[in-house]
Structures are given as C-alpha cells and as structure tokens.
Amino acid sequence: MLSQLEAYRQEIATYPITNAQQLEEYRIKYLGTKGLVKGLFGEMKNVPGDKRKEFGQVLNDFKQFAEEKYNTAKETTVSSEAATVSQIDLSLPGNPTQFGTRHPINTVRKRIIDIFNRLGFAVADGPEIEDDWHNFTALNLPENHPARDMQDTFYIHQNPDWLLRTHTSNVQIREMEKGQLPIRVICPGRVYRNETISARAHCFFHQVEGLYIDEHVSFADLKQTLYFFVQELFGKDVKVRFRPSYFPFTEPSAEMDVSCFICGGKGCRVCKHTGWVEILGCGMVHPKVLENCGIDSEKYTGYAFGMGIERITMLLYGINDLRLFSENDIRFLRQFQGAV
C-alpha cells in the first residue's frame, strides 16, 4: 500500500494543470466524493488494528499533499485568467447586434387593419378549429357543396364534423349571433385548405374578411369602401374592376381585381398572363345567412368581403412565389428590414 501511495504522489506531482477545466478535472479525480483520496480512506477497514494509527497518519499526509497541489494550481489559474481579462481592450467596438424584423405578412396585415380602423371597423377573432355550423351551414353552404369534400377541407373529426376553418367567415357568424347591431368588423386570421402547394396556393394562408350590417346598407356602400381601401393600399393610380360572381353566402356577389404590379399588366404567372389579379370576393350578405343568425332580413342588410393577405403582399413587394412566405429562408426575410 505504501509503495502504491508513492506512485500516486508521483502521478499528482506531474499532473498538468494549466486552465480551469484541468483544475476541475484534478479535483474530481483526486479530491472528489468518489475520488482517489476518499477511496484510500475507505481501505482503512482492511488495515490491522495495530497499524491503523500509523497508516492513518500516512493517508493524512497524502491528502494534504493532494490538497496543496490543488490550492497552488487554483491560485495560479485564477491569476492567469484575471491577467487575460485585464488585457481586453475595452475601447474596441462591440460586435454588431442582429435586429429582427416583422414578417412581410404581419406588416401588410397591420396596414390593412389600420385602413379599415379609419373607416370604423373593429377587429374580431375566433377559433381556428370550427364546427360545421359556423364554417358551412350558417353560411348557406348546402351539404353537397364541393367545399365540404375532404379533398378541399381538413377534417379533424366527423359525425359531428370538426375541421380546420376554411375561411374567417366563421368569425362573422359568431359576431352576428351575438345580436349586437349594427356590426362593422374585420376578421383577420389563418385559414386552411387542402390544396396543392404552388407559387399561387398553399395548404394554409391568411385572410382578412369584413362585415357591415345595418339598416339601408347597399352595394354602393360596399364599392366605395373597397375603392377607398385599394387606393389607400396601392395608391391613387391603381386600376380596379368588379366582375359578377357567385358565393352561397352573398347575393349579389362580385370579385374585385386590381392591375398586376409585378408585370405591369403585360402578363405573368402570378396574374395568369391576364394583367389582372383578383384580390378579394365580396357581395351583399344573403338574407338566409342573416336569418340563420337571428337577424331580421327585412329590416337589416349588409355587405361582406374577404381577401388573402399573401396575394396582396405579393403585389406590394413584387414577390412571384407564395411559398417564400413560409420557407423561413433568412435571405428572403432580410430584404424586409426596413419594414420594422
């Protein structure tokens, strides 16, 4: 045992300690709760009784030797690190801070909300997981309507049907069910549709829908509201056209197009080579929808509209691929640092 202790002394004496990591490794190996010194004291039980006092003295000397090595190395290491810190030139400029920015979708969403806030529209929100009534039935969508097909809608549960909302019109229904008239709200949010991902479509996107219900609301009110909106968003020179269309929840219905800013009206894959881009659908709220929500359709009328934020953002920033918004490519997002 004595010869083994001498070998341990030689090992400790030559153990290299030049930094804090090696110092901690030394402490754990020799002085820790499971270290060498602790283990040697555990061997006392195997020493004959008449030799324990002598062996105990030898172990105490060995322990002091190991501790002295540790304390000396600790002072040297601390002094060396302090000297390194003192050599830092505090007059040097710091590392530049990387600033984040708002996502272009959020920037445009805020601009749209601000414009409609100036027209007196409040912001309403609702659930993204919705039941059949608020997403389809109350909106005058019959049971055999294509939108109800699983090829177009993400169903979470059936019988009863629960699904990822396909539009933010569910928020309009919930607002009408409250019965607090008149209603003037916009409903921004994320929606989901089972579509093939391409430059023009995605399985999820963002919408802003609007609803205004009061006495004597007409289609002329709708057109003037939307004219004001696109001029504030795209500028006074924007070209606009309305096309008759069909939606189960509005009658009459129309789709609104603006001139394509990406190609200047010459034709590109975003505008399908027509020079026009549809930005929203609109119309007068169908009387049946009003009745479904407990509103007297003989007394009240209203208009509704809905638009995709991605498509408007593509027009504003000249982006030709909708997939860029959700790929998290930092090279793409850095282009919008001025939009903070």
Structure commentary:
Its cofactor is Mg(2+). This is Phenylalanine--tRNA ligase alpha subunit. With 340 residues, the chain is an alpha+beta fold. It folds into 2 domains: 2-86; 104-339, 2-Layer Sandwich (BirA Bifunctional Protein, domain 2), CATH 3.30.930. It is built from 11 helices and 10 strands. The strands form 2 sheets. Strands 1-5-6-10-9-8-7 form a 7-stranded mixed β-sheet, with helices on both faces. A 3-stranded antiparallel β-sheet has the order 2-4-3. Helix 1 (2-13) runs parallel beside helix 4. The longest helix is centred in the N-terminal third of the chain and has 35 residues, at 52-86. The radius of gyration is 37 Å and the shape is elongated. The two termini are 73 Å apart.
